[in-house]
Input
Amino acid sequence: MARQAVRHMVRRIGFSWIILLALTLSACSDYKLPPLAEEAKILAFGDSLTVGVGVSPAQSYPAVLEKLSGRVVINSGVSGETSEQGLSRLKEELQRHQPALLILLEGGNDVLKNVSPETVEANLGKMIRVAKDQGVSVLLVGVPEKGVFPDTADWYESLSDEYEVPLENDIVADLMGRLTMKSDYVHFNRAGYQALAEAIYKKLKEAGALE
Output
């Protein structure tokens, strides 16, 4: 009888943890964006994954997202850019293009250059604040840490929660692990950028920015 009681208690505790985990994950995905007007502009900001290295400009994820969303999507990618360099140019790009939404896909080069997680998180946080201070909504896209089977770096989820911005947390890490989606070690091919654009489009719809 005692063993049965212990087993029952373990099952109840385990089930409670599952419920708590589900609620936590749900909370992380519930951050919303204001609807984008038809004339609204989206600023796709980041490094070579935003540029679309490995494919033609028309096959980059911002170009594909523009077709999917029906909104103007400005490709503001700079190959090799770190989060510190991105921070230094973001304010001017926002002022120049006046977007309603910023898609922030930055941090991959920091990981490759072994920049400390604290520095990357701080830079990305400042970038989110710069955008919000100008009345620009933000969608954050996470990139993976180094590893054989890399997961998205923890700081993206922390930033999503701290600044209450929606996060696409899976697609880049998933694509990095699929050779059929890549043109080289770190960049995608046409199918990869198409998948990236579709994942971002889906997240924008889930967050309420697009119908």
